[in-house]
């Protein structure tokens, strides 16, 4: 296995890519099968993976007319940080698999676009190196068995200037991702988890065929993460705390009661428990339960500017964008990610105008209706 892209991306003319689906098709054509499947795949039968997209497609936005809107303002604030779009780049592991520039290239593009970039615990570049791009950074934390390492990562994130701490709570163990198992997926020698020691098990070191990433995380992650740990973390950092992976309104309420500034309604892009509720279906109930006590962000299935509008109309403060960013990285490195964010901005701006919305706040006041099978 290896990364086929050259450091400058070696990409076709990015201007020929007119939507995020074009970017995905171009990336799929470039990447080795195992890397492609690692990015695209979900867990189990991939029911939730497909349901995320179907649920978003089933949300009809009811536009306002005669609004007199000539120019739409896409700017907003996300977890206390200014953003040019109601979008942050989601935490995604091992980005050097997609392109040698990895997280540094992605963060540079996000910074230029004016959107926050979330550094992952399983980043293939260290937070200190990524911070040199000048991008607005959040830091994503998986709960590790080594509590000392958790404290160390929090301290490093603060020292590097990260503006929020995002704890992912839906991975007590990694979901069984059959594509990775079938491919015997493991990392090449030049890609590693920069924030962890020991690295990921190589294919030739394993006694059984399976996913080396899953084996490593089962050793490093602590499945016993509980509410007391969230309380402990809240006392250990001055950064705003974001809890990612919430679907039940009761859990969302508890998060804000414990001091979280925001929750992310997410099913991990269909990569954890298969068969769970699509994020778009869970979102309105979480928004209602939180009732303004904290921000509610959304991810899982966002593939364009209209999806951002849909999420806002359902009550979200903003969205986290995942796989499309990696496809852009694979196609053209920093330039490829920049193209993805440029397309998203253009689509979202047009969606605001067509919906009669002068700004992000107006979009959150739009009505929605179900348009899928069984809708009235």
UniProtKB/TrEMBL annotation:
Keyword terms of this UniProt record: Flavoprotein, FMN, Oxidoreductase
Annotated FMN hydroxy acid dehydrogenase domain residues: 12-373
GO molecular function list: oxidoreductase activity
The UniProt record lists the keyword Nucleotide-binding: no
InterPro entries for this protein: Aldolase_TIM, Alpha-hydoxy_acid_DH_FMN, FMN-dep_DH, FMN_HAD, FMN_hydac_DH_AS
UniProt cofactor(s): FMN
Keyword Thylakoid appears in the UniProt entry: no
Family, per entry: Belongs to the FMN-dependent alpha-hydroxy acid dehydrogenase family.
Official protein name in the record: Alpha-hydroxy acid oxidase
